[in-house]
Specification:
The chain is of the alpha/beta class. It has 9 helices and 14 strands.
Length: about 260
């Protein structure tokens, strides 16, 4: 079982509102299809970020901070619509590559409390995997018991699903080559990041709009996933180079291995 996230920065231009990278999406879809054809028994859960679609709309309306007024909830619906547009584009690329994908938007079944997912429909995703389908989840809006609305990151969704689906490998593909020892200079990818060592790394948030916290939150969620499933390998790497996602799915150790401290 593999979880693969295609980051919003990878499949969209986060510097330009609602600008998809259609050629990149198609390339990534074809790389995934090659692996699935080569390993037909592979169970794969795909997720993706919302990039310059959902993040900008969420920042505009403050959806990640909660919703109370009619205007807030109108903004919630707008964020959902923009995130859904990107999901449709990616799903179409995957379908055109012959992959039997089915989308499971978290907004339809997930509920959180103070930003933490407390329930989400598992059985439909499990049944899709059992029947050889490729389920797709995404960064999405969600209903929150404490604050009304929330933005659910793909990593948070993976974290919730991991104990039930038990992935052996979790791949978080973005445009950065991994966790950088010095993000400001862009020098040196950290090959292995343990929880203790993470405190000494400067984890800057993304330069562009990112209401889920950028790299710092990605690393935090990655550690939580690693703790949730003992033995799972979690990697943060770049999918920008042609063939990188394919190689990572086949087990090549790209980017940074996020390793939980043994209890």
């Amino acid at each position: 079982m593999i979880f693969l996230k295609l980051g919003g920065s990878l499949i969209s231009d986060k510097a330009k509102p609602e600008t998809p990278r259609l050629e990149v999406m198609q390339r990534l879809a074809e790389e995934i299809a090659i692996v699935v054809r080569r390993q037909p028994e592979l169970r794969l859960l795909l997720g993706h970020g919302s990039g310059s679609f959902g993040h900008r709309a969420a920042a505009k309306h403050g959806t990640h901070r909660g919703a109370v007024s009619r205007s807030d909830w109108s903004g919630f619906a707008e964020v959902w619509a923009t995130a859904n547009r990107l999901n449709r584009l990616l799903v179409d690329a995957l379908l055109s590559s012959g992959l039997p994908v089915i989308s499971f938007p978290p907004s339809a079944s997930a509920v959180s409390d103070s930003g933490e997912i407390i329930l989400m429909a598992l059985e439909p995703i499990q049944r899709s995997l059992e029947n050889g389908l490729l389920p797709v989840v995404q960064g999405d809006v969600g209903f929150d018991r404490a604050q009304g609305s929330v933005i659910l990151s793909t990593e948070a969704i993976f974290r919730y699903l991991a104990p039930a689906l038990r992935p052996e490998l979790v791949l978080l593909a973005g445009i950065e080559p991994g966790v950088l020892r010095d993000p400001k200079s862009g020098a040196e990818v950290v090959p292995v990041l343990d929880e203790g060592a993470a405190q000494g790394i400067g984890l800057a948030s993304a330069a562009d709009v990112d209401v889920t916290g950028g790299m710092a939150d990605k690393v935090r969620q990655a550690f939580l996933i690693a703790r949730a499933v003992p033995g799972v390998v979690v990697r943060i790497f770049s999918g920008a180079e042609p063939g990188a996602v394919q190689r990572a799915l086949l087990g090549e150790p790209l980017g940074t291995w996020i390793r939980a401290t043994a209890e």
